[in-house]
């Protein structure tokens, strides 16, 4: 294989010779955020946003490699919460609000992992959907 030879006398290289290259990715300092926890029976998803709702970090039990019924365990939820919070603590988050949704086993384990991380919690809110009257029940079974 032969290497490509760059032509130095072309006008294009002269134009770009004095330009500086900047990286587009900058680390933002986030002091306050919202931690959304969705705990179902099969998985636990943790999403961390800033106050405006833009996602900063997220993790779930499935992305950490837990498969099948192990995704719904409290240990998997605790690991997912620790993984999501690790990146946010490095960006300087100090305070957070928690919104917990769902009936899963990972609710309490996630809360314990967040408390242990050192983030100060302003409030914890349960935003699980509650049906007012629910769906129409099935027909009564005739035997």
Automatic annotation (TrEMBL):
Keywords: Plastid, Ribonucleoprotein, Ribosomal protein, RNA-binding, rRNA-binding. It is found in: Plastid. InterPro entries: Ribosomal_uS11, Ribosomal_uS11_bac-type, Ribosomal_uS11_sf. SUPFAM superfamilies: Translational machinery components. The keyword Cytoplasm does not apply. The keyword GTP-binding does not apply. It holds the Pfam family Ribosomal_S11. It comes from the Eukaryota. GO terms for molecular function: rRNA binding; structural constituent of ribosome. GO terms for biological process: translation. One of its GO terms (cellular component) is plastid. Belongs to the universal ribosomal protein uS11 family. This is Small ribosomal subunit protein uS11c.
């Amino acid at each position: 294989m032969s290497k490509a030879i760059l032509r130095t006398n072309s006008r294009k290289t002269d134009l770009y010779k004095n330009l500086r290259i900047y990286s587009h990715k900058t680390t933002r300092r986030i002091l306050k955020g919202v931690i959304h926890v969705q705990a179902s029976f099969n998985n636990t998803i943790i999403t961390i946003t800033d106050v405006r709702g833009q996602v900063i970090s997220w993790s779930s039990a499935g992305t950490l490699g837990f498969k099948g019924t192990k995704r719904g365990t409290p240990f998997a939820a605790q690991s997912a919460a620790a993984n999501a919070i690790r990146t946010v603590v490095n960006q300087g988050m100090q305070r957070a609000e928690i919104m917990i949704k769902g009936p899963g086993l990972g609710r309490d384990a996630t809360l314990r992992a967040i408390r242990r991380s050192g983030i100060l919690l302003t409030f914890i809110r349960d935003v699980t959907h509650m049906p007012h009257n629910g769906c129409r029940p099935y027909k009564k079974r005739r035997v």
